[in-house]
Fold Glutathione hydrolase proenzyme.
Amino acid sequence: MRHSLAAAFVIAAAPALGQATQDFPEGTIAVAPRAAVQARDFMVVAAHPLASRAGYDVLAAGGSAADAAVAVQAMLTLVEPQSSGLGGGGFLLHWDAASAELTTYDARERAPLAAGPEYWLDAEGAPVAFWDAVVGGRSVGVPGTPLLLETIHARHGRLPWGDLFAAAIASAEAGFPVSARLAGAIANARALDRFAPARELFFDADGAPLAEGAVMRNRALAASLRTLAAEGAAPFHSGAIARDILATVRGAENPGMLSMQDMESYRVIARDPVCMDYRGHRVCGMGPPSSGALTVGQILGMLEGVDLRALGPGPQSTHLFLEAARLAFADRALYMADADFVDMPEGLLDRAYLADRAALIDPATSMGVAAPGTPPWEEARARAPHTDPEHGGTTHFVIVDGDGNMVSATTTIEQGFGSRLMTGGFLLNNELTDFARAPMADGRPVANRVEGGKRPRSSMSPTIVLRDGAPVILLGSPGGAAIIHYTAQAIIAMLDWDLDPQAATALAHAVTFNGPVSIEATPDAEARAEALAARGHEVTVRDLNSGLHIIRITDDGLLGGADPRREGRAMGD
Ligand code: GLY
């Protein structure tokens, strides 16, 4: 018998919870929480202390949030090269305090104009294997990050453009100590040492991966940053750097077909935010080509009717969260893609539709694999789903400046170390493997198939949560498709369970992409796994490496949280 979702909180009522995670049931905390960082005027949270420092110095000098974002991204290209950089793309949310305007910038990489649905099929018409697709030139899309930085600076910047690169150029020339995370990433990277520029940067003279603490200099990147500082993004789209990118992509093993026309015609697009109401707040994020805001919004919309505050964190909340995620990922697989190329239903966040979907959730037993729904849209059954797993080499940063302007940005080169190809000291993305490699299934087209000039579907979920028309939370995370779960869970942690942003990052994760469930490896993982298995989930235990970076804007100032699973830092004043 089906139970109504509203009955869920009756089954496992828990005491009301405050901000102290030590009150939480055993096993719900993955990492010992530390105190949130407090500041009065401005704050930056980024994935590496040098990146946070670069942003902090810009803000302390009176720079805007957009200025600081330029400095942070330039530094991340150097110190967290495996995750993001000038050879990649991303999405950036900007809040303008004076006009109370939220803009979402789409700097997603783009497929070659000459590409078609057969792009990822081999000579026999079969989709190429994932890793065969990743490595080499064919996976590289037109990078968007340099033009994103130029665009946000032109619209929202205050300090001189060229000055914003000084810290990254100085560190690239003087060198910086390789972090534990970067050293581990190099040591574990597939095929990285096959390519001379990557071998020379990331390995020592004997061919050993650089160890933690080794000094890495990147003079080629310093030169690229000098060019960007002096000439803006133009050389990346029509000048010498564009020519180098094309030569690298077209001359590599597994060559790509990017052309100068692809580079020159690339645009950063300002799009309307996608927003969902939740617990008296408005949760806003990036619409297509990202699936982030729609899928986070669906999960929250389906859980709005559940008294999660009364339930508290624990197996019952996790069960309901996972069921909502199944339903949302079923819709994501079928419908979500670059809406400039494929029609998408408008009703994916429709309240009545989400209430119908939520009614499918049994509070006692998992539905297993969810079927996609039929949101108000007549073509709903004409599509085939894209359910390939996604992997993440991605970063998230959040910034508030002294005037209340804000940035929440997720940027990426897709896999850790992207395509492995390098130009000018930066790695080139493999974003085109975020497309479905099979363009058709069961005789129906896949929405996220390759098309010329299209942007691949993303999971990146840079988010700004508003209350009464003003931002109160900035957040997001790396983590491939699990970005969606990490972001949705952190929102629930703060809005339902009153956790501060640092404590919200410490909750143990559970994810499903509408199949088996993965739960985070914690000392109590076995007990959590049993509790979910008792509700019918197929569970495995593994590392779930979120990189949540959060700022909460309160009446008393700013509170910052940096995910303790990674190396990020919150800094403010
Ligand atoms: N490449 C990761 C994402 O866009 O979700």
The pocket of glycine is lined by residues 390, 392, 394, 412, 414, 434, 458-460, 480 (CB under 6 Å). Confidence is low (pLDDT under 50) at residues 1-19.
